Each structure stands twice: as C-alpha cells, then as structure tokens.
Amino acid sequence: MRVMLVNMPWTSIDVPSLAIGILTNSVRQKMPDAEVEAVHANLDFVDWVVDRTEFGLSDYYYYSLFTYFAGCGDWVFSSALYDDPQWRVQEFTDRVRTQMTERELALNLELHRLAPEFVAELADRIVAQAPDVVGFTSTFQQNAAALATARAIKKRSPGIRTVMGGANCDGEQGAAIHRNFSFVDFVVRGEGETAFPRLLAALDPARSAAVGAEPAGGLADIEGLCWGGPDGRSVANPMSTTPLPPAEIVAPDYAGYFERLAASRAQHWVEPRLVVEGARGCWWGEKHHCTFCGLNGSFMQFRSKHPGRFYDEIIELVERHQVLDMFVVDNILDMSYVTSLLPRLTESDYDLRLQYEIKSNMKGPQVQALADAGLVSVQPGIESLNSRVLKLMDKGVSGCLNIRMLRDAETSGITIAWNYLYGFPGETEDDYLPVIAQMPALHHLCPADGSTRIAIERFSPFFVRPELGFTDLRPAAQYRLIYDLPESELMDLAYLFDVPPQGIGGETADRLDRAVTEWQHEYARSRLTHHDLGDEIVLVSRRRHFDWHVLRLTDPVEVAVFRQLDQPHSVSALARRLSVDEPVLTALLRRWRGLGLVYEDAGQFIQIAPQAMNQDLLRIDHLHLEREAAETRAAAEAGEPAALSAV
Questions:
Q1: Which of 16, 68, 315, 560 could form a disulfide with 254 if both were Cys (CB 3.0 to 4.6 A apart)?
Q2: Nearest 10 degrees: CA dihedral of 223, 224, 226, 227?
C-alpha cells in the first residue's frame, strides 16, 4: 500500500508538522510493508507562489498567524474548493476593505485567483505517483486548502482513497466535513495513531491482522471514524471515551521536512525549529476548564510521557537534525518535569532553546529552572491582570500572581507570550481602569501582544454552557464567505462563533488598547531592577512616567516589607508578619505605588522590580558615583550636608 500524507498551507513553514511526523512513524511501525511519503505542500506553495507574485515571509505569517480570526487563509483557497476564481470576491471585499491595507487586500485577491492553479498542479503531481491513500492533516487555516486538494485528486483519480484528520476534524466538525464533502472518503476524529493504521489495514485486508482490524466490516469498529455506509449515507462512529495512554503516543519522524526545506526557497527565510510533544490534555482543565478555552477538543484528560523517554526523544531529534530550537506543543507543563526532565536538559551537552506553555502561578525558583533548562519563551496564559476577571475565566490565579510571573520571567531572561483578553460576561470598567492606571509602572515587564475581545471557541465552556452568559451563537462570519453550506451545517463545521458582545466596550476597550500599545512601545527602553545588598536594597528605574532613577531603601522596615512583597500580600498580612502598624504600611505602600514599585489588585500588593543582572549592577555603580558627585556639588553650593534618597 502506498500512502501519501499532505501538509497544506497555511501551517507554519519554520517547523515540521507534528501530525504528519507522528502518522508517518505510526504507519511504518504498524504496517512495515506500507510505503509512506510526506508531501510538504506548505513549502511547495512558497516555491510556487514566489514565481508568480510578490510574496515574502511576512506575507506567509500574515496567513499562518495573523489572520486566523478573519479567515483569510481559508478564503484564499475557497476559489479552488469551488473551482471558481471569483468565489465570493465581492462579499469578501465588502467585509474586509476597512480592516486591511490596500496591499493586503490586493494580495488576498491575487492569491484567491491563483489558488486553483496551485491546487491543480499539486493534485496532478500526487496522482502521478499512484497512491492508494492520500491523507490530509487540517489545523487552523488548512481546511479549505486540504478540501480543495482532496476534491481535485478524486476528480482525477476516483479510486484513490482520501482521508482527513486533525484539530479541524474533531467531534461534530469531522462529521460535518464528511457529510458535506463527498470527495473525502474518510475522516479520522480524535487521536490518529491507532485509528489511521487500522483504517489502512481495513482498506488492505492482507495486512489486517497486523493491527487487529477485521478484513470485512472493520470500518464500523474504528472509533471516531466517519465513512460511507452501504446505502451511501455518512456514518460517524462513536468517538473513543478513553484517551491514548502516554506510552502509545508515537515520536515523530521529521526527515522528510528537513530534506524538503533544504531544497526550498524558504530555507533562506526561516531558521527551522523542532516540534516536540511530552503531554496531551490539561491537568488544570480537568479540574477547572477555563471558560473561553477550546484547545483540548474532545480529550481534556492530562497524560504525559515518562520524563526519561521524553528526554531521549528530544536528544535524538536534536542529534539527528542538528537543531537546538524547539517548540513544545503541550498545552500545559507537567509540573513533575520541573524536577525530572528539566534538570537533565540543563545538564545535557546542548544549549537548547525551548518554547513551552505553562501555568502562570509558578514561583521564581521554578521559573529559573525553566531558564536553566533552555526555555527562552513561555506562554503562561496570563490573559488579565485583574483578579475578578480571572475568576470569571476560572483561571485559578490572581492579578498579582500574573505580575509575579512577568517579573520573575524578566529576572530569568524568559520572554512571555500573552494577550490581554476582555469581553467576559459580568465584567465592568472597574475591573479595567485600575489596571490601566498602573500599566505605566509595568513598562519594564514583557507587554501583552495585544488586547482583544474573546472569541467563542467550540469545546469551551462558553460554547457548551449558555448559562455562563453567551447565547445566540452563530458561526463566525468568515465561514459564510468560505463555504457554500446552510447555517445548520456551518454550526457543526465551525470552530469560532459570533455572539452579541459582553463586558466592556467603547471607550474602556479603547483605553485598554491604547495602554497596551504604549506598553509595547516603551518596553525596549524601560527598566526597573532591584539589588538586595543585605542592609539596603538599591532600585534603578528608567521609565518615561517616573522621574526618579536610583532609590535606596535603607530603613529596616522598608527593606523587610520589600522582601515580603516578593510574594503577594495584603496590608493586614504584612502587619501580622512584620509586627508593623497597618496605617504605617498603608502610607508606605501608597508612596511606593506612586513611585511605581508595587502593583495593587484585589487588596494585595506585590513588588514589580526584577532582580538586577550584572549589567544593571554596573549601571547602579555608575549612577551611584554620579549621584554622590551631584550631592557633593549641591551641598557645597548650598552649604548643607548631602541627603538624597532618590535621584
């Protein structure tokens, strides 16, 4: 049996497809006689399109990263799906004209016109290799491109079996794809390591025994599979209720990707990264599913690979491909890895650079352990700096804990990826205005990538539980521009949904956006650090909204309070811990907030100055000498002793 696995645009070109890599190994392990080939059509598209129009890396990112919520990437290939270069051009233009630049609009229209030609050439090439089965992985904006290519293949060679799987095929989405697009013979819903090889075996009875499928009628036994029944109607087998055990999660094979990238013009655009997977599901979501999150789809149950096995997989990939940068796709860090996997990575002979998703309540030493192991970027799911809104999200953290994460990541040299979300039922402007007022003090910490109203995603509590505040859900407007389907089918096909807006809007949302934008602009030139010298604490500041540059805390009470505020505390808690009167602490914290030293939320305070690194110590010494010289000059001119606590 000859199997071709296709990775269509607009998946990222700087990383291999984890799904294709896993399925390649799964088929080879369970059907050793099968021929498996990966088709990296995302790279094929780059090489094809640069010869026909002005197109660069930023344009690819525009579709793969930045326009997901607008659906531009899928709309581009809708012309190929319906074999019509003018497919809903006017409707698309009317909808987006005010939302993008003239160049962006022109590029969308040009690629929409060209897409049928690319799909036709790709389908010709695939069919010429006479595969028995062609499988497509579909995540984010790959759906229309995958469907269009499957249609073109079936038109040229009806005997080739077409299969789709991936995140866009989970649950009702996969069933809707199979019902509405007859040129897709099978849809694999859920985890494919077992189901896809079983499907191949059912299609090739001679190999059925190898994977435990029955030669005849085996399709009905494959959990989650959508297939055509004897009467021609679409059949959707019940999905598995038991997630794949971690020991059965297959390591990926990326050899084909690196070979193809080496021959692509994209090799000059990007530095490739590895994609690794240590866990699936979310241990926090099992207890408290964040109200807006639909990322885990049908399987929330958390399970992770043995740390020794995951370490071996990482090192094997590094040594095989000579790549040190890697993206870990786990939706949340297995906390046991902090004391098992991470120390081994720290002690390895490789200077790894990893990106990971974590929970934002990790403490400073844990964050430092991440940095020591090679993590350079984390996505901790901060989402807000207000405790009340975070409770509406069911995040299990406070605003001050999120500030602690930003501060400690800055100390450890880790970049934070996060967005400030709003639009939650029950929120008010009082949940945002105090945060906005304090943002100038935070300009030295990693800013949000932007502020945005939440999107309603399939599988999220907001989608499945209307009592949480969102009713009257409709498929997002993009789907009506891409697909020629009735509303009822779009409801099952869609992942994103439009709803009447909730929470803040208008001027409050605009103020939040302006404050976040200013934070982004000021971050590179802002600084606030502290250095604890034992009997005093020296702080250095360079922030546009604060006119002091060096502050020395020498009073024993102030030093003790600052150290206690390494963690969030209320005034009453500080008073009990330090045996200091509350009015004294209240006055001190009010003054420190005015100086931009602390963040306040929900009655708690936390100091916001990362620990000074070596370059900051040199700056302190330089500024200290400058200050002493200035004090000496001022004292000599005034005839008074020098006594300044802040410069």
A1: 16
A2: -10
Neighbours of 130 (CB within 10 A): 11
Q: 3-state class of 645 per DSSP?
A: coil
Residue 298 pLDDT: 80
Q: Angle at CA 300, nearest 5°, toward 298 and 303?
A: 125
Q: Contact, 25 vs 250, CB < 8 A?
A: yes
**Structure-token pair, residue 367:** 């964050």
Q: What is the DSSP string of 102-152?
A: HHHHHHHHHHHHHHHHHHHHHHHHHHHT--SEEEEE--STTHHHHHHHHHH
The H or E element that residue 474 is part of is strand 474-475
> In this structure, are residues 204 and 210 in contact, taking their beta carbons and an 8 Å threshold?
no
Amino acid identity, position 589 = L
Q: In whole angstroms, what is the distance from residue 565 CA to residue 598 CA? A: 8
CB atoms within 10 A of CB 524: 10
DSSP state of 579: T
Q: Would you say 3 and 34 are in contact if contact means Cβ atoms under 8 Å apart?
A: yes
What is the average pLDDT across 145-150? 98
Would you state the pLDDT for residue 589? 98
**CB 644, CB 633: distance < 8 Å:** no
Q: Which residues of 622-632 are buried (b: 16+ CB within 10 A; e: fewer)?
A: ebeeebeeeee
Asked if 157 and 227 touch (Cβ cutoff 8 Å), the reply is no
Q: How many Cα atoms occupy the beta-carbon half-sphere of 266 within 13 Å?
A: 28
In which band, very low, low, confident or very high, does the pLDDT at 216 lie, cut at 50, 70 and 90? very low
Say if residues 282 and 334 touch (Cβ distance below 8 Å): no
